Amino acid sequence: MAWGDDDGELLTRAAYEQIEEELAELEGPKRAAAVQAIATARAHGDLSENFEYHAAKNEQGLLEARIRVLRHRLQHASIVDEEAAAASGVVTVGSREDGERLAVEITGVGGVSPDSPVGRALLGKAPGDEIEVEAPRGRWRARVLSVGRAS
């Protein structure tokens, strides 16, 4: 599966767990706080002109949308075998490329996204390969020095 397929995305175990933690927080304490905010605003009377009520309902809608996105990501994600990725010798989701001035971890959460200019340029490359990155601040070239398992 390639990154960005309609079927889902590749995630490291750590990235998957980070999404699970965020989802648990949103579905637990954050959802309870949103329900309480609506109840408190509703107690203030007339809902048609109650700014607090409308703001609380809007926040609840944003919260529920984020929950749906995270659930979809988890349901359709594939966990990367990080040992196999490191042994492959090429850059994949879950690998780390160390350069003279730059160490890059390719991951969907907390690192360089495989969909970013750098991520797209690095995927599938091996030590010694030259890359050219078309970035918002201009084009630059680099050479992959090493590939290893993400920490």
What composes the largest sheet? 3 strands, antiparallel
Helical percentage: 40-55%
Weakly predicted, low-confidence segments: 1-5
Strands across the major sheet, in which order? 4-3-7
Content-based structural category: alpha+beta
- How many helices? The count is 4
Number of strands: 7
Task: Output the radius of gyration.
Answer: 21 Å
- How do the helices and strands follow one another from N- to C-terminus? EHHEHEEHEEE
* Beta fraction: 15-25%
What does this structure look like?
The chain is of the alpha+beta class. 46% of the residues lie in helices and 17% in strands. The protein is built from 4 helices and 7 strands; from the N terminus they run βααβαββαβββ. The chain has helices spanning 13-42, 51-76, 82-88, 117-122; strands at residues 10-11, 78-79, 95-98, 103-105, 130-135, 138-143, 147-149. The chain has a 3-stranded antiparallel sheet. It has a two-stranded parallel ribbon with strand order 1-2. A two-stranded antiparallel ribbon has the order 5-6. Helix 1 packs antiparallel against helix 2 (51-76). The longest helix is centred in the first third of the chain and has 30 residues, at 13-42. The protein is elongated. 21% of the residues are buried.
